[in-house]
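Exercise 7. Given the encoded structure of a 449-residue chain, write a plausible sequence.
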C-alpha cells in the first residue's frame, strides 16, 4: 500500500514536471515575440501613453482603471525612455501569466481522475494562442488570469475553513478590490460571491450577525471601488461616458448574433487577417464564430512580423504587422481542429452548470463549480451588453481576450467531461486525447514562433 502511494506521488511529480516545462516553453515562445513587437496589441498607443505619462495614469474616463498603469509606470520609472521598457513589461507579463496558470493547474489537479487527461488539459491551456498572445501584448487584459486565479484561491480558503474567519473575508475583499482597481470587469464577481456566501450561510447555519460581518468585510471595499469608479467617470468626458454605449445608432451585433451561428461563419475558417479582410460588417458573423477564430488563430497578427522599425514613443499599431503566407494554412488547420475543443467546452459547461447550481444549494461545492460560477458571472458582464455598445463587432467586443478567465473555466469543464464521461478507466482513450492535444499545440506553436 505504501509502495503504491509512493509510486503515485512519483507519477504526480513527473506529470507536474512536464507541464511546468511546458509553461517555461510558452514563455520562451513569448520572449522572441516581444522582441519583434509582440507587445503591440489593440490600442497599444493608448496603453503606452498611460504607462509613461504620470498625468494620464489616473485617467478615470478611460476604459480601464489605473491599477495596471500605476504598476507599469513604476517599471517605466526604473527602466527609462527606451524600447527596453515595453519589451521588459511584455516578458514580465508572459512570465507572471505562466506562474498564475501553474497555480490554476494545481488548483484543478485533484479534480481529475486521469493524470494523463489533466496533463493534456495543462498543455492545452499553456499553448492556447489567445492566452499566449494576450499575456504578451501590453494591455490590462494581461492581468486578468493572474487576478482571477488569486480570487479563486482566496475564496477557496474562505470556503474550506472549518469556521470561516473574518480575516479570510477581509483578505478576499482586498483581493477583489485590487482586481477591480486593475480591471473593471471583475466587478461582475461581487454579486456572484454574494450569492455563494448566502448559500454558505444558509447551509452552515451561520448566525445573521456572522453572515453580515463576513459579507460586509468581503464585499464592501470592492463595491466601494466599483461605485467610486462609476461616480468619478460619470463626471468626466471620455470613452466610458461618451463612446462606449450606442446612442441612437443601431448595433452591429444583436442578440441573434450572440446566440446563433451564421452561414458566413464558414468564411472565418480561412483564418482571415482583420487588417486585410473586411469581415466585421454588421450582423455578418456570429459571436461564437468570431470568438472561436480569436481563440485558435492570430487574427490581428500580433505575434507576426512588424514591418516598421520599433521605437520608444512611436505610434505603432497591429496593422503594421505582416503574416508570412505559409502561416495562414497552419492557422486554418488550428481553427479546424479547435472546433473539437470548442464543442467540448460548450458541452462541458452545459453539463457543469446544473451540477454547480445543485451543489450550491446542498453546500457540496467543488473547485470546478466555484470556478464556473465566477467565470460565468465574468463572461455575462462582457457578453450580454454587446448589443448596446458602440460598434461591437468592428471594435472587437467579441474578442476572447476580454474573457480569458471564463475561457479557463469553460475548457476545464470540457476536460472534466472527457475525464468523467469519455475516458473512465480506458487509458487508451486518455492517450488518444493527450495525442490530440499535442498535435493541436504543435500546430499552434508553429504560427506563434
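Solution.
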Amino acid at each position: 500500500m505504501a509502495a503504491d502511494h509512493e509510486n503515485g506521488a512519483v507519477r504526480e511529480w513527473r506529470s507536474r514536471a512536464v507541464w511546468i516545462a511546458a509553461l517555461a516553453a510558452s514563455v520562451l515562445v513569448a520572449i522572441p515575440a516581444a522582441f519583434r513587437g509582440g507587445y503591440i496589441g489593440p490600442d497599444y498607443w493608448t496603453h503606452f501613453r498611460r504607462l509613461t505619462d504620470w498625468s494620464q495614469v489616473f485617467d478615470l474616463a478611460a476604459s480601464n482603471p489605473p491599477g495596471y498603469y500605476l504598476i507599469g509606470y513604476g517599471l517605466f520609472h526604473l527602466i527609462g525612455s527606451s524600447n527596453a521598457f515595453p519589451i521588459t513589461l511584455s516578458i514580465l507579463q508572459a512570465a507572471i501569466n505562466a506562474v498564475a496558470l501553474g497555480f490554476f493547474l494545481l488548483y484543478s489537479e485533484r479534480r481529475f481522475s486521469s493524470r494523463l487527461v489533466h496533463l493534456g488539459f495543462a498543455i492545452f491551456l499553456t499553448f492556447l494562442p489567445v492566452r499566449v498572445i494576450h499575456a504578451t501584448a501590453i494591455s490590462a487584459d494581461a492581468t486578468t488570469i493572474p487576478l482571477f486565479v488569486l480570487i479563486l484561491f482566496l475564496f477557496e480558503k474562505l470556503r474550506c475553513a472549518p469556521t470561516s474567519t473574518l480575516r479570510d473575508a477581509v483578505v478576499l475583499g482586498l483581493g477583489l478590490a485590487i482586481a477591480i482597481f486593475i480591471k473593471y470587469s471583475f466587478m461582475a464577481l461581487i454579486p456572484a460571491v454574494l450569492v455563494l456566501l448566502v448559500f454558505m450561510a444558509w447551509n452552515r447555519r451561520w448566525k445573521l450577525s456572522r453572515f453580515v460581518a463576513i459579507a460586509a468585510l468581503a464585499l464592501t471595499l470592492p463595491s466601494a471601488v466599483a461605485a467610486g469608479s462609476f461616480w468619478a467617470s460619470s463626471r468626466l468626458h471620455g470613452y466610458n461616458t461618451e463612446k462606449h454605449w450606442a446612442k441612437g445608432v443601431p448595433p452591429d451585433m444583436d442578440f441573434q448574433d450572440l446566440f446563433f451561428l451564421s452561414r458566413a461563419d464558414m468564411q472565418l475558417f480561412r483564418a482571415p487577417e482583420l487588417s486585410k479582410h473586411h469581415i466585421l460588417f454588421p450582423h455578418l458573423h456570429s459571436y461564437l464564430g468570431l470568438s472561436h477564430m480569436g481563440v485558435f488563430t492570430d487574427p490581428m497578427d500580433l505575434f507576426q512580423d512588424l514591418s516598421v522599425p520599433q521605437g520608444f514613443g512611436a505610434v505603432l499599431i497591429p496593422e503594421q504587422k505582416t503574416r508570412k503566407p505559409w502561416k495562414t494554412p497552419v492557422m486554418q488547420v488550428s481553427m479546424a481542429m479547435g472546433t473539437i475543443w470548442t464543442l467540448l467546452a460548450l458541452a462541458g459547461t452545459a453539463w457543469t452548470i446544473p451540477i454547480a447550481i445543485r451543489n450550491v444549494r446542498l453546500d457540496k461545492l467543488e473547485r470546478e463549480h466555484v470556478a464556473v460560477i465566477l467565470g460565468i458571472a465574468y463572461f455575462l458582464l462582457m457578453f450580454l451588453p454587446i448589443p448596446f455598445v458602440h460598434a461591437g463587432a468592428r471594435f472587437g467586443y467579441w474578442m476572447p481576450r476580454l474573457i480569458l478567465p471564463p475561457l479557463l473555466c469553460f475548457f476545464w469543464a470540457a476536460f472534466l467531461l472527457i475525464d468523467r464521461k469519455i475516458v473512465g478507466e480506458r487509458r487508451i482513450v486518455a492517450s488518444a486525447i493527450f495525442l490530440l492535444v499535442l498535435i493541436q499545440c504543435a500546430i499552434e506553436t508553429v504560427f506563434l514562433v
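Remark. The mean pLDDT is 93. Students should compare their own answers with the one above.
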